Amino acid sequence: MNQKKHKPEHLKVIQGSGKAPISKMGGGKNPVYFILLSLALFLLVQILFGWIWGNVNQGAINTTLASEGFVNVSFTAAGITTYSEKVVPAPRSGFVYYQVAEGERVPVGKGLARITEFPLDEEINEQNEEQGFTEYFQRIKNWFLGEKNEDYSYFFVTNEEVHVEAPLPGLVSFRVDGFEKFGPDTHFPYLTPQEFEEKGPDEQNLDSGEKVFRLMPLLKLINNYYWYFSTVLTPELGQLVAEKPRVKIYFSFAPDVPVWGEQVEAGKRDDGQLEITWYIDRELPGLFNQRWCSAEIVYKNLQGILVPKSALMEIDGKKGVYVLEKGFIHFREITVLAERENDFLVKNLELYERLITKPATVKEGQRFYW
Length: 370
Known about the structure:
- The structure is a single chain.
- The chain contains 4 helices and 19 strands.
- By secondary structure, the chain is of the alpha+beta class.
């Protein structure tokens, strides 16, 4: 017997479309996911913005690192240079013709010049030639007037010459000024600028072909491996160097080459001025042409931190600079030791601190991202 199955009357079938329902939140993801994603994007934007802003600020504040430096403390003095020098005189009268050049270094026995009885160049020395022949005819006249002897050479025109050789090694200079008598072999000269101007050098400078007389200075030989600088200082300047055995000196004719001067002599005048001489063992360019010159005498050397002049500022009467430390601007008070062309030498700063070179563009406490 077939029995029919009866559906439960309390159940009801709902007809659908055959499609899964779509979540309004997108893929059924938890809303917390979107909150975290938004937070991450916000933080990323903050980091990028801070990096960009920090780089813009870094270029805008113009910083530099504090560096170590020094400054020479000095004064200017004028004086006389002397050497061990030898004047070479003419052994006879005649016309001189040099065989060396100004500033040339020569050994012993080197030919320096020759002196001829008559000029060698008629065109250049026409006047000197006339003088030479005048002397010749005067000698003939003297012979006829009674100064007779068996020497008939007066009647023959011969251009005798004498060669002058270097008696010692040295540097050649044609400038003979009368100060050759001073130096380490005798005594040192001490003159103020006014005294030197009043006395002045008696300078003599011969050229080839000129007439010379016996014992007239032809040139001088300078031992310029060592030389001396003598000056007269005021009492105030004198006390700065009187007790110093050694000082650094910059001479006006070679301002970029420092030399060391060893004190060899010092004494006081009745008026309190100091007469002092330094010994120098380094040759300088153009030294052999110098007699009176000025020099920068360095008597102290200060060391500290170099700060650009543009970085210096003043707050409430205190001099200082702005430094960037851990991203913040801080005012640092400093003490100025000395001034250079573009910098100040200061203390109270640490080496390699970052300085603000344009303090007007920032303020204390301001923060910068790096």
